[in-house]
Amino acid sequence: MIERFIHHLCVELPAADEAAAGARLRLADKFPRTALRRMTHLGLLVGAALEGSSLGPDDALVYASTFAETRALEDFLTSFPAASPLLFQTSIHPGGVQQVLIGRQQPIARLWPHAGRARLVEQALLTALLEPAARVALVGGEERGSWMLEQGMASARAFAFATILTRSPNGATGRLTFAPGREAAEACPTLENFAFALAARQSLTWPGGNGRWTMEWL
Prior knowledge:
alpha+beta, Peroxisomal Thiolase, Chain A, domain 1, 8-stranded mixed sheet, 8 helices, about 30% helix, globular
């Protein structure tokens, strides 16, 4: 069995109708003013979730998102035929977590980005559990889509989460484990399901990846 213990944990679950402009007003004091206007909604939410995590140059970060900056791309395309230069800059900006690390001039040892759907949570968790760094930030999130939602290419709501995982149980609030086995795989929690479970401190267990995953609270 391999395991990591949950320490710092923050989940951002904004109002259902919040967009990037609203997030900039709500979270303005958490970011440099020079970076704020170019940050995407997901970047703002990830940055708020990472606040207080105290990442260092020896730490690693695992990042998970299915759709990433889809809303930023939607907004740019909607500005045609008079394409907006600002929305263009936002749509090609680095990913949400990179916006935060660059803005805070925060070096880390390794960044492991993951994208996917059905088993994205397992992929991100396995990377975090196998990462050799003593401290690993597990971060994920989505922007709320508009017209691309109808095509199944965007998230129905915005959210972000960040937690610091270590091998030490001292001061931990939870634990993530993977026990190898021959169980048949079942449905893996979606990234949104996982974020809500973190917010509610809800335990999870499911078989997948030739073993059993467990998230429990201490």
